[in-house]
Amino acid sequence: MSMIEFHNVNKWYGDFHVLKDINESVESGEVLVICGPSGSGKSTLIRCVNRLEEYQKGHILIEGRDLHGDDVNVNELRSEIGIVFQQFNLYPHLSVLKNITLAPIKVRKTPKKDAEEMAMQLLERVGIHSQATKYPAELSGGQQQRVAIARALAMKPKIMLFDEPTSALDPEMINEVLNVMKDLAREGMTMLCVTHEMGFAREVADRVVFMDFGEILEQAPPDEFFRNPKHERTKLFLKEIL
Amino acid sequence: MNYQFNWKLVLTGEYGQWILQGLWITLEISFVSIVLSMLLGTIIAVFRLSRVKPLVWFSATFTEFFRNTPLLVQIFFWYFGSYAILPDAVNKWLYKQDFEFAAGVISLTVYTSAFIAEEIRSGIFSIPKNQLEASRACGLSFLQAMSFVVLPQAFRIIIPPLISQFLNVIKNSSLVMTIGVMDLTYMARQIESYTFHGFEAFTVSTLIYLVISLIVSLLVNQYNKHFLRFIPH
Ligand SMILES: Nc1ncnc2c1ncn2[C@@H]1O[C@H](COP(=O)(O)OP(=O)(O)O)[C@@H](O)[C@H]1O
Ligand SMILES: [Mg+2]
Fold first, then answer.
1. What total number of domains does chain B contain?
2. pTM (predicted TM-score)
3. What is the extent of the structural domain holding B11?
4. Is the CB of A15 under 6 A from ligand 1?
5. Do B197 and B10 touch, CB atoms closer than 8 A?
6. Does ipTM top 0.95?
7. A49 alpha-carbon distance from chain centroid
C-alpha cells in the first residue's frame, strides 16, 4: 500500500481548471520534488493532501484511506501531515518554544513538560536550541523556517509537505534550511517538496515531477529528469532555472 | 482688568466638595458606559462578522448611523424623545431611577459601541489569513485556532485603540451636563454661577480631564512598547 495515492484528482476555481486528472502515488519514505512554472498548480496540489484545499473530482488516499471518507476527522488527519509554508507563518505572539508546543499540547494533549522536552530536542535537531525563548521576529528568515519545520515535526507526522520553503529566504540562508530537509529525507520521511532547488532534488529526491497548466507532464528519477527531459515544456523550464 | 484670582475658593470647602462629587459622577458614568459599550460593541462586531444577512445589515446600519450623527443630538434624543418609543413599563421604571443618568449612559453607550464594534472587527481582520491556516494545518480546530492564535493577536492590536475610545467616553461624558447630570463639567459651571470664578473652576476641571487622559495614554504607551513589539501591524 502506498503512502499517498492520487486518483484522477481534479479541481476548479470557478471556471478555471487548476488541477487536471492528477494520478500519482508516493511510497512510504519516498521524496518527491515537484517543480514547474509559477501558477501551474503545485501549491494547490500539495495543499489538497492536508485538505487546506478542496477538490471536486477524484480521490486522494493516505495509507489506503480516502481523505474525504466518513471516518476521517480532518483535525486528526492534519495533525499527521506536516506542512511548511513559503512565508514560515509562525505565530508572532508566541515564543519559539510555544510555537512548537501549542499543537502537541492542545491537539494531542501531551503534558506541557513532555512537549517542551520534545520541542527542545527538535530545536537541537534543526540547530537553534539556543533561541527557544525568543520570538519569531527576533530570528533570521532561515532560523524562522527551521522553527517552522520543528513545529511541523512536533506532531510526529507521517508525511511532510513543503511549499517553496526557501523561496522567501536570502541566498545565504537557503542551505541551512535545505540541510535540515536533507537530513529528514535521509531519515526516511515521506516528503512532497515544491521547490526549484535542483541541487536538493539531485541529492535526495527519488523522483522529480514536472507540472504545467495543472497537469503532471512528466516525472522521472532526478538523473534522468535532468539529463534527458522528454517534454518540450520541461526542457524550456529547465533551461530557464538552471 | 482687575479680576481677583481665587484658587483656594474652588479647591477647598463646599466648592471643592462639588468638584469631587462631579469628578465621581464623571468617573461613574464613564465606567458604566465603557463596560456596557464593550458588551454591545462586541455583539455588534460579531453580528457584522457572522454570515447571517439580517444581522449584518442591522449592525452595519447601527454603526453607520450612530457614528455619523452628533453625540449631543443623540443625548437629546434619548433624554427628550425616547419616551415616545419605549414601552410604558420601561418608561415608568426609568423615571423612578435617575433618569438623567440613565439617558446619559444609554447615549454614551450606543454612540461608543458603534466605534468599538469597528475596532474589534478591524482587529480580527488585520490578522493575516495564513495564521488561521497555519494553526488549522497543525490540527487545531477552528475554535482552538481562534482562541490561541487569532484572537490573542487581534486583542493585542485592538487594546490601544480601544483605550483611546475609553478616553473619548470620559471626554464626551462632559456633554451629559446638558441634560442635568451633575458631572464634573456641570459642577464647574455651577461654581461659576455661584461665585463668578469661572476661570478657576474651568481650569481645574480641564486639568482633571487632562490628567486622567495623560495617565491613561502613558499606560497605553508602555503597553505598546512591551506587547506590540513582535506583532506586525
Ligand atoms: N483562491 C483562488 N481562487 C482562484 N484562483 C486561484 C486561487 N488560488 C490559486 N488560484 C490560481 O490557481 C493557479 C494555481 O495556483 P498555485 O497552485 O498557487 O500555483 P503554483 O504554486 O504552481 O505557483 C494560479 O493560476 C492561481 O492564480
Ligand atoms: Mg505556489
1. 1
2. 0.81
3. 7-230
4. no
5. yes
6. no
7. 10
